[in-house]
Amino acid sequence: MQSILRRTLASSNPLLRCQPIRTPRAVYKVSGIRTIVTKKYTAEHECVAFDDANGVGVISITDHAQSSLGDVVFVELPQVGTEVAQHKQIGAVESVKAASDIYAPVSGTVVEINETLADQPGLLNKSPEEKGWLCKIKLSDPSELEKLMNEEEYNASYEH
């Protein structure tokens, strides 16, 4: 039944006959400019998605971290304008099971925080690396990214 429906819809809608364009997930085209987003991880379960076009990294905790914490009930974030140093504390997360400090994976200036987390700290559990991002940092030294782990190295660091 589904294949008949697909054939019928495809014949009546030329857009459905097109094959999806497959591009690398980390490459985006914005206003005709190609940018690359690099995602790196720390051993303390933070990650940074760095956009080379604007020099800003989006800081979050990993899915593994949120699952280890349990239900998050409070998030403490740095203030906009705060200068942060790599591997230094920038905030904290409290859950029903534990409290954990958040460390900056990179150095720079906080340019934005996720204010939604003040009212919805559980967003860290639902979408830790996307909607539950913590803050955005304008990197002062993008070469610090080279000292961090890629996804495969990070996953291997905590798997048994």
From TrEMBL:
Record domain Lipoyl-binding: where: 56-138
Keywords assigned by UniProt, alphabetized: Lipoyl, Mitochondrion, Transit peptide
Compartmental location: Mitochondrion
Note on cofactor: Binds 1 lipoyl cofactor covalently.
Pfam families, alphabetized: GCV_H (PF01597)
SUPFAM superfamilies in the cross-refs: Single hybrid motif (SSF51230)
Obligatory cofactor(s): (R)-lipoate
Gene Ontology cellular-component annotations: glycine cleavage complex; mitochondrion
One record GO biological process: glycine decarboxylation via glycine cleavage system
TM region positions: none
Residues with PTM N6-lipoyllysine: K97
CDD domains recorded: GCS_H
InterPro entries, per the entry: 2-oxoA_DH_lipoyl-BS, Biotin_lipoyl, GCV_H, GCV_H/Fam206, GCV_H_sub, Single_hybrid_motif
Quaternary data: The glycine cleavage system is composed of four proteins: P, T, L and H.
Family: Belongs to the GcvH family.
Protein task: The H protein shuttles the methylamine group of glycine from the P protein to the T protein.
Name by which UniProt lists this protein: Glycine cleavage system H protein
Organism (species): Gymnopus androsaceus JB14
